[in-house]
Design brief:
about 55% helix, flat, 4 domains, Rossmann fold, about 450 residues, alpha/beta
Length: about 450
């Protein structure tokens, strides 16, 4: 218990609660005197010894239950219905119609089984929970876990299962009871995910120091960042851009001599019997040409904002940058790159296309691109698309994307979503993927800067 209390105090400090060594000592002395048997008394002892200001009480109240609770998942309903052998067989037959993942989830809901610790650990690894250390993102991370478990698909499958059971002749009253039980169990599972996300974040907070907090922003998903944190990262963009520009300049300097052209060297020196030798090199395109198309809808806004900031900061190392933004239509934003300072340019772009819940339509935007700006794409172009490929079930226009891929030198996709999410729901990423030369997952600033560094080497 002493170790748990020490971790709790560390998390309080990283949450902004000022706890001195003397106050920590007071807390342990009070606990030795009062004991830990009564949870409410234990809570009051810690609260009265560790918290000095009313403004810090909310953080204490958020963290305490995450460190000191039973750890058991929310209760789920066990099957209380009496099913005869015929009804049990109908359920088994209906479940076989679903894919393994959906079938496994439906069976958990039928049997009232919570997610195992092993399953929760896999979700932590998939979503990089070790990088999240702010309780404001507890609900957001829980929703990401639901997304990874395909909860929306499970809800649809649950309705399909009930319809199949009715068609098979199962009593309607019993079908309704089954539905209510499974829906209640799914809500309990959602609460289990929220509880787990909070506990994991609290543990991360206890291990974090102040410097790690800043460094951690580099690895935090863009979509989980607050406006204040985005401003902090904007200041870092200039430093990262300086590093990228230096690397690019060194590469260009190294490549200026070009590659030895054996045929041209032999041909040139025939006139003097090859003595002395005049060496010829192949010409190199020293600077890449970039066409970038960025999704600036609500779910993609922060990622595209950082991409545009980095592109603007290094555009002097690129022969030409043509930049476009889209939600449900395409907008040429290249003039902002030519006439503004980096922070002003990106701010103007985002004001011109304000965020909102639009009907994102990449297919229509690709049509605009090829209709009005096809001449911007040629054999020297690195075509970069920044988006999650979620088209709201609109036509993805794969034919146009294939044309772009054939015309350009490189076709690069930067997607913030992990690969297991591709192809789920309204994602068309699995259809676009074969047409791309490279795909990078870029849900944080570290990944984005690394991707830009690598893709410019590819030119």
């Amino acid at each position: 218990m002493d170790r748990r209390i020490i971790e709790f105090i560390a998390a309080l400090r990283n949450g902004g609660v000022r706890v001195s060594l003397a106050e920590s000592s007071d807390a342990f002395q009070a606990i030795d005197h009062m004991g830990i048997q009564n949870r409410e008394t234990f809570r009051i002892v810690l609260r009265s010894t560790l918290v000095k200001a009313n403004s810090e009480l909310a953080e204490f109240d958020r963290l305490f239950p995450l460190f000191f609770q039973s750890g058991d998942p929310p209760p789920m309903l066990n099957p209380s219905l009496e099913l005869n052998s015929d009804e049990a067989k109908k359920i088994a037959d209906a479940l076989r119609q679903f894919t393994k993942n959906l079938r496994d989830m439906l069976e958990k809901l039928l049997q009232g089984k919570p997610l195992s610790q092993e399953e929760l650990n896999r979700l932590d690894q998939l979503l990089k929970m070790e990088d999240v250390n702010d309780l404001r993102y507890q609900n957001w991370m829980a929703r990401q876990m639901e997304k990874a478990l395909q909860f929306s698909e499970v809800q649809k499958a649950l309705q399909e299962l009930m319809n199949m059971l009715q068609q098979m002749g199962m009593n309607k009253e019993k079908v309704d009871q089954l539905r209510e039980m499974m829906e209640a169990n799914q809500k309990s599972m959602q609460e289990q995910l929220r509880q787990h996300a909070g506990q994991k974040i609290a543990e991360n907070m206890s291990k974090q120091n102040r410097q790690e907090k800043m460094d951690g922003l580099y690895n935090r998903p863009f979509q989980s960042l607050s406006e204040e944190e985005m401003q902090m990262l904007h200041k870092e963009v200039q430093r990262l851009a300086a590093v990228l520009r230096t690397r690019m300049a060194l590469r260009l300097k190294r490549d200026r001599t070009g590659q030895l052209d054996v045929k041209a060297t032999l041909r040139t020196n025939l006139k003097n019997g090859s003595v002395p030798i005049e060496i010829k090199h192949k010409d190199h395109a020293l600077k890449p040409k970039v066409v970038a198309v960025c999704d600036v809808s609500t779910s993609m806004r922060h990622c595209s904002e950082m991409m545009l900031s980095l592109l603007h900061a290094i555009h002097d190392q690129i022969s030409k940058t043509h930049a476009f933004a889209f939600i449900d239509h395409l907008q040429d934003i290249s003039p902002y790159f030519d006439n503004s300072q980096p922070n002003v340019a990106v701010e103007d772009i985002l004001q011109h296309m304000p965020s909102g819940y639009y009907n994102t339509d990449l297919g229509s935007s690709l049509e605009d691109l090829m209709k009005n700006y096809a001449d911007k794409i040629d054999s020297k172009t690195t075509f970069i698309l920044v988006g999650d490929a979620r088209n709201n079930y609109n036509n993805p226009r794969l034919d146009l994307f294939e044309t772009i891929a054939k015309r350009s030198r490189n076709t690069i996709w930067l997607n913030p979503e992990p690969a297991p999410f591709w192809g789920t729901g309204d994602s068309d990423m699995l259809q676009y993927a074969p047409l791309c030369k490279r795909i990078f997952q870029v849900d944080n600033l570290n990944q984005l800067s690394s991707a830009i560094d690598q893709l410019l080497v590819m030119h």
